[in-house]
Every structure is written in C-alpha cells, then in structure tokens.
Amino acid sequence: MQSLHLTVEEQAMLRGRDGDGVALAMRVIVGQARISEAPRLVEITSAHVDSCLYHGQVSLDFAQRLVESGATVRVPTTLNVGSMDLIHPGLVRDQELAAAGRELMAAYVALGGTPTFTCAPYQLPQRPTFGEHIAWAESNAIVFANSVLGARTDRYGDFLDVCAAITGRAPYAGLQTPEARRGTVVFDCRPLGDFLRDELAYPLLGHHIGSVVGAEIPVLVGIPNDVGEDALKALGAAAASAGGVALFHVVGVTPEAPATVDELPVGVVAVDTLQRVRRELSAAGSELDAVSVGTPHASYDECVRLAELVVGPPFKVPFYLSTSRLTRDRLVADGVLQLLESAGVTVVVDTCTYVTAILSPDWKHVMTNSAKWAHYAPGNLNVSAVLGSLIECVASARAGRVVLA
Predict the structure, then answer these.
(1) CATH code of the domain in which 175 resides
(2) Are 359 and 353 in contact (CB under 8 A)?
(3) pLDDT value at residue 262
(4) Considering 154, 179, 204, which residue would you say is the last residue of a domain?
(5) What is the extent of the structural domain holding 145?
(6) Distance between start and end Cα atoms, the chain
(7) Pairing of strands 290-298, 365-368
(8) Are residues 20 and 168 in the same domain?
(9) Cα dihedral 231, 236, 242, 248 sign
(10) E-assigned strands of 173-274?
(11) How far apart, in whole angstroms, are the C-alpha atoms of residue 309 and residue 349?
(12) What is the structure's pLDDT at 264?
C-alpha cells in the first residue's frame, strides 16, 4: 500500500491545531485518502455539498457536531438541494421531514456554505474553470464539472464533501489525477443523424451509455459541435444515474476529448436503440396525474422556453418546474415567473420533486422530460413515469393524458 504524505499544515490540522471540527474533517479526508491509496492530498478551490439533503437523523447529527465544534468551510462552498423549499414551505406535504430538512439546511449555512440549494451549481456565476481541483458531490454536478468544464473532482459522497470544504483538501486520487481521466470506450453516435437535433436524444443517450459502461469513461463521436450545455447536462445526468459515469468526452466539444480514438473499443448507437430506452423508461398507457420537469434544475433558458410554450389553453393536471432560487430571481426580474405561474406552473426551488414529498401520494402517473427523474421517481415515489420532450409535457398537461409526438 502506498504511503500517504501530509504537509506540515495538514498534519497540524489533523492534530487539532484548528479545533476539533477541523481535526474530525481531516480524519475523514485522510481515511478516504488511505482507502484510495492516494500519495498525497490536493488543495481544492471550491466544494459542492450534497449532504445537506436529509437522509435521517445521522445527517443532522454529523452537521451539528461540526457546527458545535466551531468548524467552518475554508473554500467557496455551494449547497445542493435540501429536503425543503424554503421559499414555498407549504409545498412540502411531510411536515416532520420539512422540519428536519430545514434544520439540516440551516446547519450547513452555519458552517459557511452559500445557500444556493441547487443540484446544478455549474449554472451559478462563479463556476470552476479548466484544470481546477474541486470537491463536488451530487452525481450530475460531478459529471458536468469534469466533462464540460474540465475541472477535476472525484465522486464524493455525503460527509466527505463537507469535510473537504472544511479542510480545503481532497485525496489526490481517481479523477483528480490526469491518468484516470482518459477515455475507455467509444460510442459512435453518427448513425443517429438528425435525431441528435431532438432534445430527447441527449437524456436517452445518457441513460443508454450509463447502463452500458457503469463507471467507465465514455468517448462520444458524432455529436454536433454546436450542442448546448442544457443538452450536455441532460446527457451527463442520465449517464450518472443509470450508471456511475463521472466523466465523459465528446470529440470536438468537451475540453479533454481525445483527438483520436483508434485504440478504444467502439459501440455504435442507433435510433432504434434510443427508442427502446424511451420505452423502458416510460410506463404504457395514457393516464396522467401530473407533470414534473427540471431535473437537474432547469436553466434560465429552459424556463424561458417553457414560458413560451405554456401560453394557451389551461392545464388539466398539475405542472411542476424545479429550478434554483438564483434562476427564480432572474425569472422574477424579467417577468417570466409571472407568465409561468399565471399559466398554472408551480415553481419549486431548493429541492426536487423526486426527493421531497411535494407530489400527492395519490398520483401514480407522472410525465417528465428528465431521464434522471424517470429513473429514480418510480422507486422513490411509487409512481409510473413517462418520458417526453418539453413540448410533449406541455401538450399532455393540457390534454390531461399522455400525448406523444
């Protein structure tokens, strides 16, 4: 086993020079570094903390112990979604969960985290740049930071994320290292042709790739050079939920994509493959109780597009849009939020409908434009999901039944 080298500063933190909270956080980081056989720790420039999402009393106990010990973050730290919409508290149906979620979210703010409460921190103004070492949790944030921004983060889970924020350190292992970031398998997407101009191509492609490769690093060939960040967001989120993808490369698009892929195994992606994936993610039938979009959190551009689509006849079923509070502020300033709400859209912030008790437990048929939501919601909420484009989601909400193009 490779020995772990700690600097004088790191040894001092571990011994308790900066207090019990920092020492506890350093013990966690050092323990993980030894498990991953890291030769050293690396200084990080930012963190994104997923452990502010309530998963039981241990979630709160750990955060409160850090607060009581005087620990605070030492790098800019954004906070992931919590279990509560703090702006619209009445949306959460489980008041016991809401109270615990609120307390946990407050604890992470007390530790110095910025109350962003979004699963899409890459949509915030200050996002990491190419080559920066960061410690981000939340699977879709990890894969976007690594793939699209070219920042470096491994997959960090609850408690490890906040410990990295408090110490400003992460193990120099996994995707923090250049050798671990090379592609391992190629997907030739050229046979998809014009289908790659369809918004559903990217969540479907991501789900397919994640299901096939697990935690390997896929390289995609044939994606249009002008593909947008929202499409790459949908691709990465689906790949990270269906598998363990934390980094993908798109030749000609993403910053670390290889110039040649001649020596890697190649798989060809056809349209009928993605059509099969859509059938697998969608329940049969036309029954519909609600629509939920915005997983990961909808970008400002996605919200504006939805506002353009909802002008017209009213909805026959509830329609939910999840986004960040920062994006919501922009929507308020531009008058877009009023358009959405007047059309019957319920805007959810700080959380997401598949992790928090917002949808009625009586609803069993829910439509979404997110492969990630369609993957997780059946198990989390006991619903039957249907995956559709944003246009199909709006048309279905108006019809009160599933309408597919």
Answers:
(1) 3.30.499.10
(2) yes
(3) 82
(4) 179
(5) 8-179
(6) 57
(7) parallel
(8) yes
(9) positive
(10) 185-188, 218-221, 249-250, 266-268
(11) 21
(12) 85
| Residue 119 structure tokens | 């699963």
Task: Give yes or no for a contact between 235 and 205, defined as CB atoms under 8 angstroms apart.
Answer: yes
Residue 164 burial (C-beta neighbours within 10 Å; 0-12, 13-18, 19+):
buried
Separation of alpha carbons 297 and 348, rounded Å: 10
Helix spans in 214-345 (H): 229-242, 271-281, 300-309, 325-334, 336-342
So what's the pLDDT on residue 263? 81
**pLDDT score recorded for residue 21:** 97
> Residue 1: what pLDDT?
60
Q: In whole angstroms, what is the distance from residue 133 CA to residue 47 CA?
A: 10
Q: How many Cα atoms are found within 13 Å in the side-chain-facing hemisphere of 191? A: 11
Can you name the residues that pair with 221 across neighbouring β-strands? 188
Beta pairing class for 41-43 and 169-171: antiparallel
Spatial strand order in the sheet of 135-136: 77-79, 47-49, 135-136
Of the candidates 261, 279, 297, which is a domain's last residue? 279
- Output the pLDDT for position 288: 98
Spatial CA neighbour of 117 closest among 377, 294, 297? 297
CA distance 281 to 299: 23
Within 10 Å of residue 2's Cβ, how many Cβ atoms? 12
Query: What is the chain's length?
Result: 405
Query: According to the model, what pLDDT value does residue 182 have?
Result: 96
pTM over 0.90: yes
Low-confidence ranges of the chain (pLDDT < 70): 1
- Please tell me the distance from the alpha carbon of residue 145 to that of residue 132, in angstroms, as a whole number: 10
| Tokens standing for residue 268 | 């060809």
**Which amino acid is present at 226?**
D
Q: How many structural domains is the chain composed of? A: 3
In whole angstroms, what is the distance from residue 162 CA to residue 136 CA? 9
Assigned domain for 405 exists:
no
Residue 262 vs residues 191, 255, 267: alpha-carbon distances, Å: 18, 19, 12
Taken in order 128, 204, 212, 81, the sign of the CA dihedral is positive
Question: What sign has the CA pseudo-torsion 213, 218, 223, 226?
Answer: positive
Contact 146, 152 (CB under 8 A): yes
